[in-house]
TrEMBL record:
Protein family per UniProt: Belongs to the NodA family.
EC number from the UniProt entry: 2.3.1.-
Source species: Bradyrhizobium vignae
Domain of life: Bacteria
Keywords: Acyltransferase, Cytoplasm, Nodulation, Transferase
Functional summary from the UniProt entry: N-acyltransferase required for nodulation. Acts in the production of a small, heat-stable compound (Nod) that stimulates mitosis in various plant protoplasts.
Name of this chain's protein: Nodulation protein A
Coiled-coil region(s): none
Subcellular location: Cytoplasm
Enzyme class of the recorded protein, top EC level: transferase
Main localization (coarse): cytoplasm
Record-linked InterPro entries: NodA, Nodulation_prot_NodA_CS
Lineage of the organism: Bacteria, Pseudomonadati, Pseudomonadota, Alphaproteobacteria, Hyphomicrobiales
Pfam family, one: NodA
Amino acid sequence: MNIAASRTAGTPSARAQVQWIRRWESELQVTDHAELAEFFRKSYGPTGAFNAQPFEGNRSWAGARPEVRIIGYDARGVAAHVGLLRRFIKIGGVDLLVAELGLYAVRPDLEGLGISHAMRVTYPILHELGVPFGFGTVRPALAKHMTRLVERQGLATLMSGIRVCSTHPDVYPNLSPIRTEDVIVVVFPVGRSISEWPAGTIIDRNGPEL
């Protein structure tokens, strides 16, 4: 799923009460997936039933499955979530290793927690994964909000005019297996400078979106 930005400024007390934990996918038990699936249904549900549908039952992912998760917990359970997946994407014929960021969500009562706070927790893990860049996408409607939250704070660079191709996680008889979207690309420089990001107007995930 696209990275979704929160709408309000978080309070210091709310941020202080959230404890962030890194969990590799192989460490998660069925009870963990069930808890996360419920969290995603409640987090994405207010934006439309379709967005919550992938998380029915104990399914805690929507398209591609994360490799590692950064999960925020508070006294009420799961408070926030960021998923990471190392993969090669193709840009203008260049294969590039990235850590895709997706499945970003904040529990509705903590919407002000903010993506910038989550990214400050995530950045050290991106360095540990040894990737040159973090990569994500957002809907154009959220571009201004993301600019304020991450670009102006020096966390990332936003790129427009780029189309991103993905495969659908499931194959349907009357639906193309490929989806192409006009989105805002968010690039987080990690091991390389943003000047080393390949030029190109089409990015191919060669797989489902995280």
